[in-house]
Write a structure and sequence with these properties.
single chain, 156 residues, mainly alpha, 5 helices, globular
């Protein structure tokens, strides 16, 4: 974006603009309060990232789906633990622990949930909007987005 946006076209988050950061504004001045209110009302906080596997890799090695999921869950667990490490903060934010506690109080201890079950509501809402707005040719369900192997867990 090179020119100041109008309120109807501003992104919700400020993108990284090294050349002209003053050329972009947030959609909402007090975005955290707006996002918290929306979450309280809808229990939706937009999913930030997804993980995909190339079809040819999945077809040759279907076990990769579950292994990749488990690896991300382990990494997430470590990241959550790091948020509460007081001996040496992982990020240079003076009130990091308080911010993590406030977020946990509002959204639960896993505020970035992984997998199908904790994301069904958000995904089904997104998929419904996508269909209603003509972006998808048919209405999908959240389960349609996950390969069966990513939904199974076994202990041996």
């Amino acid at each position: 974006m090179t020119a100041r946006s109008t309120p109807s076209t501003r992104p919700a988050r400020r993108p990284v603009l090294h050349e002209a950061p003053e050329a972009c504004d947030r959609l909402f001045e007090d975005y955290q309060a707006v996002e918290e209110e929306y979450y309280k009302r809808t229990k939706i906080f937009p999913i930030m990232h997804t993980v995909v596997i190339r079809r040819e890799v999945y077809e040759k090695h279907p076990w990769v789906a579950q292994s990749l999921y488990k690896a991300f869950v382990c990494a997430q667990r470590e990241a959550y633990e790091d948020l509460y490490e007081t001996a040496a903060l992982k990020f240079m934010l003076p009130w990091l622990i308080r911010h993590a506690e406030d977020t946990r109080d509002l959204m639960g201890k896993e505020f970035w949930p992984y997998g199908l079950a904790p994301n069904v509501h958000v995904l089904n809402t997104f998929l419904r909007y996508s269909f209603e707005q003509g972006l998808a040719k048919r209405l999908l369900t959240a389960q349609d987005l996950f390969v069966p192997e990513s939904l199974e867990a076994f202990k041996i």
